[in-house]
Specification:
Largest sheet of chain A: 4 strands, parallel
CATH architecture of chain B: Up-down Bundle
Number of domains of chain A: 2
CATH topology of chain B: Fumarate Reductase Cytochrome B subunit
Distance between the termini of chain B: 68 Å
Oligomer: heterodimer
CATH superfamily of chain B: Transmembrane di-heme cytochromes, Chain C
Number of helices of chain A: 22
CATH class of chain B: Mainly Alpha
Order of helices and strands of chain A: HHHHHHHHHHHEHHEHEHEHEHHHHEHEH
Strand order of the largest sheet of chain A: 2-1-3-4
Helix content of chain A: 40-55%
Largest interface: A-B, 125 and 103 residues
Structural class of chain B: mainly alpha
Radius of gyration of chain A: 24 Å
Radius of gyration of chain B: 27 Å
């Protein structure tokens, strides 16, 4: 490997972790949130500052705010209290974290990331810690600890991989979420999280696409799809009384390669004649609130049910997005339900009743499409994907906070002739994060992203070398945004595609013209050209 | 530094304490022995109950199981019932197997990032050490019942027989004794030898292991090397269990060392990480079913939040909707 790439090395750590401090080196942290974004969300302590400043301009009583915040959360979350108490430091999690593997920084071992908070918990909230202090693993809460929290809680993508291996199920995502909530209380946030959250709150989606631009983008997609397939589709926005409200991550409307997935959705919905609508108000499925606090998550998520109610749809269908599905599967119904104004989703094409979502009434598009394919209701020509040799990256949240593993694989195997799995220890529940999830995917954080994504990239490199894989399919908007630069760096020559992009390539539309290109506009071999293979 | 110093202190102090206990055991300690035993039991039980009460008094606001396999969704896709349970029953089975077989540790692997690959291989050492330790400890505790209950329950006799398949002479060698010592030694050496684990270890992590080792060592010494008057010990133990304690005469100093250390361990448990024996059952990433979308989970403190309502949003976007022809 060429020497101008980041060197990945691991050393045995020495000394006492409690007396080391993080170095805010450029490339390893995210810029602070602007005062405007804090104000627009009514969050505390808006001020200009940067993590590299010596003075973080914390509120005068910051220590009391944090201790009160910890106490409140210990009383509200059993998970938090248990995870503070249970750990035996067996070290099973140590080498499971992609940030530890990529950075070699021992404080990126999940156990130590949690100890950053646990040491404060012991000192201020346990008898032994109050009595014996450092001997009992306690630590004074100082400004240096706050800086350390900021550094390491924004070097965790809440991917939950460590919790798969923990004998007590301790979930670092839970600890990081609480840690970030605490930092929020004293105004230590990052702009890459709060800017999208603020836009989502005010305008309707993370990218801040206003209604008329959304309409323009969708119209453009309609034209483009017609050019490729010869079929003109209709894309309703805000249609009252539609059967289904469709909610996708906003990157799908605007960014490549997400956009090709959007083309796939549109072609599919047209082909099966789905009575659906987009919404300009609830034009975001993703939820950057999740990366900030439970409360902000709830504030952003509320729009989906509100809009479903206003539009009087029967049920909600969700697009390809990772964290979005963590929120929908594990939080939405509890936070903003009950969705008693909706009906249990029934596929209008196959008649399948999706009983497993009878309460939330929101279905994942991979579940919906897998059912269509299985019941033989759509025609697929996988040869149109023959220029792709595909592998599948399980996004963290659909894998470890849901278990959506076989549906996307079924779609891929039906849509592509060349499908290869990455090594077992890197897929399904063992999947490695892209390294940029949970709001870390900003350019100023690039070195840490490349380090965090290293284990995933190496698994991709493995199948690239072994099977000539040239496409990595996934069902997460963050993956689609951050994996292209990651792979360009570590495993050049592998493109990133959505599952419904590949489905869209293979999908045979009624009345379509002879397809000469895929949804990206890349030329494909057409059926007529290869009678020899038939 | 603080670890090295603390650890040295611990190594020096712990045997010294037992030594002192052994050497200076005055007859008057005989009178205290029942009180120490009862106090330790009380602290253990009440302490663990208090801990459980504290844990359970915090609610479970969200259902957040870590899913480690295929969900139950479409009828024709087989779900991973244990690793991604969709009912209370299968979640219970997952929890039970977690406690009985340490299934999560069984997944363990060692990974290392090199300059152009991340290598990973299965690693069962920790699982083996942990499971051997926990199960042999349980067997040993159950075998101790023969001291407390008269007549000795049949299952204890069977267990003894199974535990000593190479029964020769008056002192059968119990496999669980050997296994416990080996496992504890492994866990301690691993903590010291593995640089990552040593780096994260706290003084209390060594303390717990050291206490366990000392209890085990005094027990093994007493049983296999020094020899004690089992009849006297049993008389004492039975009287303790009947809540009419007699004084433990003729039991010998090693018995008191063993008893004293075991009592220290029991009393320490509720304040230590060993309380995981109770806490693990409550872990919300393991003991809940992944059925959020089928059955609504209730958060007791769920409170309304400030949202940007459609009416507010419409007010700001009316013109844009109109120009784009999107219905209001």
């Amino acid at each position: 490997m060429s020497s101008d790439l980041i060197q990945i090395e691991q050393h045995s750590p020495k000394g006492d972790w409690a007396s080391t401090k993080p170095e805010f080196r450029k490339g390893t942290w995210c810029y602070s949130a602007t005062p405007q974004n804090l104000s627009s969300l009514d969050l505390p302590n808006p001020r200009p500052w940067q993590p590299s400043d010596p003075d973080w301009k914390l509120p005068e009583n910051w220590k009391q705010i944090l201790l009160d915040g910890i106490k409140e959360r210990l009383e509200k979350y059993r998970s938090f209290r248990l995870f503070m108490d249970l750990c035996v430091r067996c070290g099973a999690c140590a080498d499971k974290c992609h940030f530890y593997l990529g950075s070699g920084d021992p404080k990126n071992m999940p156990v130590l990331r949690a100890e950053l908070l646990r040491s404060i918990y012991r000192r201020y909230f346990t008898v032994s810690g109050r009595l014996f202090g450092r001997l009992a693993g306690g630590r004074e809460l100082t400004e240096d600890v706050v800086k350390e929290w900021f550094y390491y809680f924004y070097q965790c993508t809440e991917c939950r991989r460590c919790s798969v291996y923990c004998p007590y199920g301790i979930d670092t995502a839970e600890i990081t979420m609480i840690g970030r909530e605490l930092l929020n209380l004293i105004g230590c946030n990052t702009n890459w999280v709060l800017d999208p959250a603020s836009k989502c709150y005010r305008i309707g989606n993370h990218l801040g696409i206003p209604p008329h631009s959304l309409k323009d983008n969708l119209d453009f997609a309609v034209d483009e799809l017609e050019e490729i397939t010869g079929v003109r589709v209709e894309v309703p926005i805000g249609k009252k009384g539609a059967e289904v409200l469709f909610v996708a991550p906003s990157a799908d409307y605007f960014v490549t390669p997400h956009y090709y997935t959007l083309l796939g959705y549109l072609a599919l919905f047209h082909e099966i004649g789905l009575d659906y609508t987009f919404s300009a108000y609830a034009s975001e499925g993703g939820n950057f609130g999740l990366f900030s606090s439970h409360e902000l998550m709830k504030r952003l998520n509320a729009k989906i049910y509100d809009e479903a109610k206003r539009l009087k749809v029967k049920w909600v269908l969700g697009g390809e997005c990772g964290h979005m599905w963590r929120v929908i599967n594990q939080y939405m119904d509890t936070m903003n339900g009950p969705a008693d104004f909706l009906e249990t989703p029934v596929s209008p094409v196959t008649g399948t009743r999706f009983d497993h979502v009878r309460s939330t009434k929101m279905l994942h598009i991979a579940e919906f499409s897998a059912d269509l394919i299985h019941q033989g209701k759509i025609r697929l020509d996988p040869r149109r994907n023959d220029h792709w040799r595909v592998t599948y990256h399980d996004s963290c949240n659909p894998a470890r906070a849901m278990g959506l593993l076989d549906e996307p694989r079924y779609i891929l195997r039906s849509s592509c002739n060349h499908f290869f799995e990455m090594p077992e220890s890197t897929i399904r529940e063992h999947t490695f994060c892209c390294g940029s999830g949970s709001g870390l995917g900003t350019d100023e954080n690039m070195e840490m992203r490349l380090r965090g994504g290293y284990p995933r990239a190496m698994a991709v490199k493995h199948v690239k070398e072994r099977h000539d894989v040239n496409a990595l399919a996934c069902i997460c908007a963050i993956d689609k945004a951050v994996l292209p630069p990651l792979l360009e760096y570590w495993a050049p020559g592998v493109e990133v595609a959505g599952v419904h992009e590949l489905l869209g390539n293979a999908l045979v539309l009624k009345g379509e013209k002879q397809r000469t290109t895929d949804l990206r506009g890349q030329p494909i071999q057409t059926a007529e050209e290869e009678p020899a293979h038939a | 530094m603080r670890y090295r110093a603390g650890f040295a202190l611990l190594i020096a102090l712990a045997p010294a304490c037992s030594g002192v206990a052994l050497a200076f055991l005055p007859k008057s300690f005989l009178v205290l022995a029942p009180a120490v035993a009862y106090a330790a039991c009380a602290i253990f039980l009440l302490g663990l109950l208090a801990r459980l009460w504290r844990w359970t008094s915090s609610p479970v606001p969200f259902r957040i199981p870590t899913t480690c396999g295929q969900q139950r969704s479409l009828a024709w896709i087989p779900p991973a019932r244990l690793d991604n349970p969709s009912t209370g029953l299968t979640a219970g089975a997952r929890m039970l197997l977690e406690v009985l077989t340490f299934r999560s540790l069984l997944r363990n692997s060692r990974s290392r990032a090199g300059s152009d690959a991340v290598t990973s291989h299965d690693s069962l050492g920790l699982w083996l050490g942990a499971i051997v330790f926990h199960w042999s400890l349980l067997i040993i505790l159950l075998r101790h019942l023969r001291l407390f209950v008269q007549p000795v329950p049949a299952f204890v006799l069977t267990l003894q027989k199974l535990d000593a398949p190479f029964h020769t002479g008056a002192h059968p060698l119990y496999l669980s004794d050997v296994a416990l010592l080996l496992a504890l030694a492994y866990l301690l050496l691993r903590r010291l030898a593995n640089p990552l684990v040593r780096y994260v270890s706290l003084l209390t992590d060594y303390l717990a292991l050291w206490l366990l080792l000392e209890v085990a060592l005094t027990g093994v010494l007493m049983r296999y090397l020094i020899g004690v008057d089992v009849t006297s010990i049993k008389q004492f133990a039975v009287s303790l269990a009947a809540f009419s304690p007699v004084l433990p005469r003729n039991c010998g100093p090693w018995f008191f060392a063993h008893l004293f250390l075991a009592c220290s361990l029991a009393a320490y448990i509720p304040f230590s990480k060993i309380a995981h024996m109770a806490g693990v059952w409550l872990s919300p990433t393991r003991n809940l079913a992944n059925n959020n979308r089928a059955v609504r989970h209730i958060n007791p403190w769920n409170a309304p939040v400030k949202t940007h309502t459609y009416a507010e949003w419409l007010e700001e976007n009316k013109d844009k909707l109109k120009s784009a022809g999107i219905p209001e």
